[in-house]
């Protein structure tokens, strides 16, 4: 069965959609990506669509679902390279894709992912520090605040 | 004087049909997009005109499939003076749309989906017409004119 290739790029996965995506292919991509995130322990997904001259509501919905599923699996998704004509059409159609982060191209997508993941790491380590302090001495934590 | 005047006394000559696509499954939505995309490129449609027409056709074909289960999509060329356009006809064989005004309104959807189908598609094209909505089925005609 035909499929859209998923390329590993360090901690990220890169999907470049080059041809018209029929519904089954879109659903297959959604499934393949979830499996690949798990398999490679990926922290980011880049979906590159600069070759596409159309995106309809179905594909829009699949992209939003991919972003939501990836987040549950611990990966952030960036949609890269939406063409201006496609962006205008989507807005006129009423599809805003609010839940999916977008970037002008893959380079900028990578930068966004790196920054975003750095923020998350910082937040996590703050969390760990506080937890550590609390387990050692709850009184000290209280006196700190 | 047009040559075919004798043959078509009361009606104008019909637009030359370029493609007729039978709609049976969701794979056919992609076939409609592909055929229409080629027609647009051949007529030098600009990026935006192409994107709008192909997207509208995708939504309407999906709509047809969702409500009627099957139907037919035909793509024809239309010429008006020095303008060239594409007219796409969507014929379903389903129950038809009971309340056209409601179906065109924002957010209406009697089945699942985003509910942007008809109203959204209407905004994307230059001309949009629902010709019949009876027990026999629904016909939707959309036209987009080529713009560089």
Polypeptide structure, described:
The complex is a heterodimer of chains A (145) and B (148). Chain A is an alpha/beta fold. Chain A contains five helices and five strands; from the N terminus they run ββαβαβαβαα. In chain A, strands 1-2-3-4-5 form a five-stranded mixed β-sheet, sandwiched between helices. In chain A, helix 1 (23-40) packs parallel to helix 2. Chain A is globular, with a radius of gyration of 19 Å. Chain B has 148 residues and is of the alpha+beta class. Chain B contains four helices and five strands. Chain B has helices spanning 27-42, 47-68, 100-104, 117-124, and strands spanning 17-23, 71-80, 83-92, 127-134, 137-145. In chain B, strands 1-2-3-5-4 form a five-stranded antiparallel β-sheet, with helices on one face. In chain B, helix 1 (27-42) runs antiparallel to helix 2 (47-68). The longest helix of chain B is centred in the middle third of the chain and has 22 residues, at 47-68. Chain B is globular, with a radius of gyration of 16 Å.
Set out the fold topology.
The complex is a heterodimer of chains A (145) and B (148).
Chain A lengths: L5 E4 L2 E5 L6 H18 L3 E5 L8 H16 L3 E5 L3 H10 L7 E3 L2 H31 L1 H7 L1
Parallel strand pairs in A: 2-3, 3-4, 4-5
Antiparallel strand pairs in A: 1-2
Chain B lengths: L16 E7 L3 H16 L4 H22 L2 E10 L2 E10 L7 H5 L12 H8 L2 E8 L2 E9 L3
Antiparallel strand pairs in B: 1-2, 2-3, 3-5, 4-5
Helix pairs in contact in B: 1-2, 2-4
